[in-house]
């Protein structure tokens, strides 16, 4: 008898509907941000504040370079002008300078690339970013004059 009561109680616990949260959730899907590209195959993606941005090399450039074995990163805090050399990548095929698409100050470097430079090959336009920059005054206009993704695809298909 005690076992039957226990089984009935357990059955109610198992089949009881789950309690629903009354907390309102908003979309956890990240907002897509547009990347802009340079003639030398670097990209920049502005943060939502349009004061900072991430910079890396395009998938096209990473593929053309082949297996990247070394990345030279700039110093955090370095102030650079648009088109300055910000570092270099070396691959089994060649070496290439990296040019900063806009002027500003380096606020972060992707230190994962020091140990795993091939991350650029695996995820060139996401996890393989190279630097984050605080844009100099007026540089948002410079960014918006670069090629958008469609223009860049057209350029590399020529």
Automatic annotation (TrEMBL):
Its main location: mitochondrion. It is found in: Mitochondrion. The modification N6-lipoyllysine is found at residue 93. Residues 52-134 form the Lipoyl-binding domain. Binds 1 lipoyl cofactor covalently. The glycine cleavage system is composed of four proteins: P, T, L and H. Its cofactor is (R)-lipoate. Belongs to the GcvH family. The keyword Cell cycle does not apply. One of its GO terms (cellular component) is mitochondrion. This is Glycine cleavage system H protein. Keywords: Lipoyl, Mitochondrion, Transit peptide. GO terms for biological process: glycine decarboxylation via glycine cleavage system; protein lipoylation. The H protein shuttles the methylamine group of glycine from the P protein to the T protein.
């Amino acid at each position: 008898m005690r076992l039957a009561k226990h089984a009935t109680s357990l059955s109610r616990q198992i089949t009881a509907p789950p309690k629903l949260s009354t907390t309102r959730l908003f979309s956890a899907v990240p907002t897509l941000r547009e990347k802009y590209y340079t003639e030398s195959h670097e990209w920049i993606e502005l943060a939502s504040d349009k004061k900072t941005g991430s910079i890396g090399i395009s998938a096209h450039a990473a593929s053309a370079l082949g297996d990247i074995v070394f990345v030279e990163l700039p110093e955090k805090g370095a102030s650079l002008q648009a088109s300055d050399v910000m570092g270099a990548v070396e691959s089994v095929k060649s070496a290439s300078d990296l040019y900063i698409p806009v002027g500003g100050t380096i606020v972060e470097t992707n230190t994962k690339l020091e140990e795993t430079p091939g991350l650029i090959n695996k995820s060139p336009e996401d996890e393989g970013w190279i630097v984050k920059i605080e844009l100099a005054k007026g540089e948002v206009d410079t960014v918006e004059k670069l090629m958008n993704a469609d223009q860049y695809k057209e350029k590399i298909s020529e």
